[in-house]
Specification:
heterodimer, A: alpha/beta, six-stranded mixed beta sheet, 36% helix, B: mainly alpha, MetI-like fold, 9 helices
Chain lengths: 252, 229
């Protein structure tokens, strides 16, 4: 479904992604984690061309998406993307946020688009907020609307870039719940997240990145219980007990 | 004051019309309204050029903005007055000349306001719309500009109010707008300049004040609709 081959990206002289080789099968849920600045967000943003790459290839359904001939808009409409900052459109209601793309891009008639949006909002438990504006919702609710908005284009792949990092702790659960529901229905998902509970429960595979490289790939159980790479061991002990000794060395 | 209005009121309002060309306050209103309506889309297009990734659009428009911003409106009017007939090969009337000058001059100022409004939005708005599959232009029209306009409204109104007042510079190319008509009346009544120019001042104030109030109402109305963010 998704295949990265020798992907390299530089910001000036900074090597943001170094020789990434990765494959995500259809229906697979992959969690990407790693310290801040490790390249995980950059990596997921290259998957829908929000970031350019300097060498290598990324294939989605066999299409080389960074090729010049690929229509970037058609490509992106088939990849759902959920951002850390939700990025709902504040001038539109929740319902309009979810119907904008289906109506304009999939050319659905108003009624059909509304029904689709309502059923998706129902799925994330927010049908009763359809008429509200994003500014009237909590962070967790906004992120769930963002998930519904992405699903409205009926994408075969969903990408999540730290979907719960900007949320108050008590709202993390509701967003993860919506994501778990998706995973169980067989959606192909790549999630950048540090939510270990989520990774344990639904991920097929965990990828650990640091300094633009993939240092470890493993099943959730073995990654969280017996991480192999020393950097992964330190990372896991840091996020489990941030106050303990090694906490300061995160930036190293 | 009353007798002036009785004698010259109609002349003040519509100029010599219907026995001569339309003028006076009505011409000022038509000129200001056309200038606003035309300068606004020009401003949007110039603003989009200013932030375009394509140098072929960005560089000339940026140059134009800098040149016009560093030039008094009076000079732009003279340019239009002398240059337009040369360029088009036919005589341009004063109204057309003044309109072109206002549209170009205010279009440039509006472009800078609109550019600031667009750049003031979080980058995530563009990214999330593009991620759904919208093109750059659709994103601008559906997502970015509607939000930017709300934020820009106070500055836009400022510029619109300026435009109304700038129509008075039509005086120097003998456009028979309301200031010109007032000076004509004053020439016929050399003893009453204070009354006449007080009336003129009041006229401009009422126009500008009404626009400001309308904009204020619009601002509140829009704020209620989209709630706080």
């Amino acid at each position: 479904m998704i295949k990265l081959e020798n992907v390299n990206k530089w910001y000036g002289s900074y090597h943001a992604l170094a020789d990434i080789n990765e494959t995500v099968a259809k229906g697979e849920v992959v969690v990407v984690c790693g310290p801040s600045g490790s390249g995980k967000s950059t990596m997921i943003r290259t998957l829908n061309r929000l970031e350019a790459i300097q060498s290598g290839n990324i294939f989605i359904d066999g299409v080389d998406i960074h090729a010049r001939s690929v229509s970037v808009n058609a490509l992106r409409s088939r990849i759902g993307f959920v951002f850390q900052q939700f990025n709902l459109f504040p001038h539109l209601t929740v319902l309009q946020n979810c119907t904008l793309a289906p109506r304009r891009l999939r050319k659905l008639p108003a009624k059909e688009a509304n029904d689709l949006a309502m059923s998706l909002l129902e799925r994330v438990g927010l049908a009763h907020k359809a008429g509200a504006y994003p500014g009237e919702l909590s962070g967790g609710q906004q992120q769930r609307v963002a998930i519904a908005r992405a699903l409205a284009m009926n994408p075969p792949v969903m990408l999540f870039d730290e979907p719960t990092s900007a949320l108050d702790p008590e709202m993390v659960g509701e967003v993860l719940q919506a994501m778990k529901g998706l995973a169980k229905e067989g959606m192909t998902m790549v999630c950048v997240t540090h939510e270990m509970g989520f990774a344990r429960e639904v991920a097929d595979r965990v990828i650990f990145m640091d300094q633009g490289r993939v240092l470890e790939r493993a099943t959730p159980e073995s990654f969280f219980l017996t991480p192999e790479h020393p950097r992964a061991q330190r990372f896991l002990s840091d996020i489990r007990s941030p106050m303990a000794g090694g906490g300061i060395s995160l930036a190293s | 004051m009353l007798d002036i209005i009785q004698t010259y009121g109609l002349y003040y309002l519509i100029g010599q019309y219907p026995n001569g060309p339309l003028g006076g306050l009505l011409m000022t209103l038509i000129l200001a309204a056309s200038a606003l309506v035309l300068a606004f889309p020009v401003g949007v297009v110039l603003a989009l050029c200013r932030i375009s990734p394509f140098a072929i659009l960005r560089v000339p428009v940026t140059g134009m903005v800098y040149v016009l911003r560093g030039t008094p409106l009076l000079m732009v009017i003279f340019w239009a007055y002398f240059l337009l007939p040369t360029l088009t090969g036919q005589r341009t009337d004063q109204f057309g000349t003044m309109l072109v000058a206002l549209v170009i001059f205010d279009g440039v100022y509006l472009a800078e306001i609109i550019r600031a409004g667009i750049l003031g939005l979080p980058r995530g708005q563009m990214e999330s719309s593009r991620s759904l599959g919208f093109s750059y232009l659709s994103t601008m029209l559906l997502v970015i500009l509607p939000q930017a306009f709300r934020n820009m409204l106070p500055s836009l109104v400022n510029q619109f109010v300026s435009t109304i007042k700038e129509t008075s510079l039509g005086y120097i190319i003998s456009l028979s707008e309301v200031s010109f008509v007032a000076s004509q009346i004053s020439a016929q009544l050399p003893t009453k300049p204070i009354e006449i120019y007080a009336l003129l001042g009041l006229t401009y104030f009422v126009m500008c004040f009404s626009l400001s109030r309308f904009a204020y109402w619009l601002e509140k109305h829009l704020a209620v609709r989209s709630a706080k963010v």
